[in-house]
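N-formylglutamate amidohydrolase structure dump, as promised
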Amino acid sequence: MGESGEAWRLVGTPRAGGILVVSDHASNRVPADIDLGIAPALLDCHVAVDIGVAGIGERLAARPGFAAFLGNVSRLVCDLNRHENEPSVIPIASDGHAVPGNALDHAGHEARIARFHRPYHAALADLLDREPPGLILSIHSFTPHLETRPDEKRPWHIGVLYNEDRRGPGVALDLLRQENGLCVGDQEPYSGQLLNETMNRHAEGRGRLYFGVEVRQDLIADAAGQEEWANRLERVARGVLAHFA
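structure tokens r here:
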């Protein structure tokens, strides 16, 4: 499996100039000593994990030139794609579901950040410095509709997210739009200018080539869908990397 920590795991062998997949929300794991105070079934829902992204990341990491750095704790325990000073980094509610176990005092909040958030980002920063990739591919997934907004459908099959750096995202959008039958969103279902913490810190903040994607969860909930989208994202990622070679 490679290197790992409590908050992250590395799959495959990263290499300088290759493609590193980063998925902050790849796990629904809750450590045994943490009680979130929620129904266990909620851990299989989008509020706890980006459904399907671990399977895509693992499939890509098995291919030449790829590796995957995957979050290894539920976003309800600690949201690794939020700044550590944001209240939502340890959410007390998500899509209408209360998380009573996250009503922490200052010491408890700080301990959670020190245990998960900081080691995750320190390990990612170290990896990127040791084996600088030619491209970072950030993979998330999104629910077809929020429970709090059941009538607001999200038609996109995939969205490309970014903040200010459009180099990789621009090429990725062009390549995805060439794929037959895809509904492709540019900054959908929300803007990467609002939610892009990990890439802001480790990619844009360091001038590294990257693009982020959000894949609709019903398309990648099973092995067949994950294989299909791993193949698609491999084509697009290799195309982006080749464009800037």
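Residues 8-243 form a domain with the Aminopeptidase fold (CATH 3.40.630.40).
lmk if u need the other ones
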